[in-house]
Amino acid sequence: MSNNSQNFVPIKEIKDGIIVLKDDSLRAILMASSINLGLKSEEEQQATLMQFQNFLNTIDFQTQIVIQSRKRNIRPYIAKLEARMREQQEPLLKIQTREYIEFIKSFMEINDIMTKHFFVVVPYDTAPINSSSSIISKFLPGGPKNKTEEMEAFEERRMQLEQRISIVQDGLKRTGVRTLLLKTPQVVELFFKTFNPGEGESSDKFEDIN
Known about the structure:
By secondary structure, this protein is α+β, with helices and mostly antiparallel strands. It folds into 2 domains: 3-71 and 115-195, no CATH class; 73-111. Helix content is 48%, strand content 18%. It has helices at residues 3-6, 42-58, 75-87, 91-110, 131-137, 147-174, 184-195, and strands at 11-15, 18-21, 26-32, 64-71, 114-124, 179-181. It is extended and about 70 Å long. It starts with a helix and ends in a 15-residue tail after the last helix.
């Protein structure tokens, strides 16, 4: 990503999976499982929707739901099948495995296998800082915040964010949706793919929690 592009990315750093924005606000990303309402009865659908409505009514902060579709990378799967075919001693099974591999390859030439991931962004915004008071603080005894004070402020904001994460996870759990808090490598991969949509295919860093 070029320096000009980086100017439009509001991320300052990522600490233990927590995204720190340039205004020191925090964001956490939960990967969520999906629910197929079409397989549920009408009563179960109504119950699920009611639980989701109750969840939305319990939160007093904004959340963002993101759906990301990516082309599935099946090369590791093909390589595993080819390895098993070479190890196969039974001639008939070996032929069937080879035919299955050819079927998968031909199918992929005319169809894209897509994967969908669902994410919930949990925010914690800092209070706006008055620029004039920030400048004046530099001339007060002690000057600007030192590293220890910055770390303490971050930990305090992180605790507030973790409380919100728990609220979101508990609320979604009641609807039957399981969630997983993304770690730093997963967050980096998510943003890289978001800002570089043409770079590669879906990887296995996001474990399926459905």
